[in-house]
Give the backbone structure.
Amino acid sequence: MMDEIRKEIRNIEKSAERLKSLAKDNNAIRKNAEIILTYLYILKFITPVWGEEDQ
Amino acid sequence: MEYWNPYTETLPREKLENIEFSYFKNMFSYAKTHSALYRDKLKGIEADDIRTVHDISKIPFTYKEELRAYQEIEPHPYGGLLGVDIKDVTTFRQTSGTTGKPVYVPETYESWQWRIESWCHILYMAGFRHRHRVFLPFGYNVYVAFWEAHYASEKVGCEVIPGGALDTKGRVNKIIEIRANAMMNTPTYGLHIAEEAMNMGIDPKSLGIERMLCAGEPMPEATRRKLEDLYGCETYDHIGGTEVCGWAGMCKVKKGLHIIEPFFLVEILDRETLTKEVGEGEQGVVVITPLGRRSFPFIRFNTNDVVVKGHSNCSCGRTSKMIMEVVGRADDLRKIRGVLFSPKTIEQLIREEFTDIVEYEIVVERKGIMDEITLRIEATPKLGKDDVENLTKRLKERSKVKTNLTCKVKVEPQGALPRYDLKAKRFKDMREVENDG
């Protein structure tokens, strides 16, 4: 199950990065995309795999 | 569900330690490239030099004095401690400055959320859940105290009531008015609220507090049990600090504190040489590396806190390393007449055996060539003259047994001793004042 979770985190990360770049001229959307990325940093931190823990 | 994060909280030790080692190397590289302090301090040591967990001991400790020195450079006020661009800092915190100039702590949105996530473990293992209406009887300010508690309570799903801008009586009334059923406070202030409630003719048990998390001071087991008895509630402890975050919490087994792993690499090193990890049941100094906080990276921070190391097989199922007991700050341990004295021994004695003492203070003075300890106490008003005399005599005898030192006992009138809502300062070593003066 953790593999599925990690895969989903990577998917959301790609989407959030894309959202951020699409919203370069929109403070509200860009900021909220950045906040999603903040939580993704934490999600990655709390779902480590031995040998793949690089943040 | 028993755990906040069942995955990390029940990982086998070996796996957990491997993950922490990997995180440590990442943080080492990050600190070296992003913080002026570590650019200087780690010169000549590369991440590749850290091949095994044993190599960590080759890395120098970080001391509070270094933090103070490096924050003097630009950018103000964090200076060389900053691990991010200053434009990304969203919150300012500072230490209390009791041992010197305060350390200013920068938090970004990310680092703050990382702290909160760590704190959620503390709350969850202490049984805080959606059903709890948590009263925080403090006005929060530049200190970190209760900000983490507030945001972590929200994240765990509790309802939080900020209880600042009220006196103690007002707080008792507010708890009743809104039917708060959980509370977070210093042990001292928990006792004081109970005392104030009783002065108002209210049994603290009737307040309806079912869960309490204490912070801010080392809490002897006897104090924890006293709070449970007074309020008829479950009382838990945790350990944390402004620089390092909340890093250990107590589970429902209540036999020691779990280190929040893999958020922190915690070393408990022998007090004499600070070179080797102590064994279970032994005292050691805590050295901490937060492993994911980038706004304010620090590596092997010597906290100067002395703890007793516990085992790692708690019946709650968590696999984290444990602290059996917090002994206190290394600074608080004093040699008095050649004997090592810990103020916590007196607190444990008073809370356990002298429930008629409502407040106390320990004063150490030098009289001629001799050091003298005086225990200033306030007894509950219900005691008669004979009872007070008897209590004084017993306290002299029992303190001698517990500390190997003779203590004078001075009975003070009601309200003569200070009450504290944050960190209590019940230990006064006047020998230092004399030396400084």
Remarks:
- The CA atoms of residues 3 and 125 of chain B lie 7 Å apart.
- Chain B touches chain A through 17 residues (CB under 8 Å).
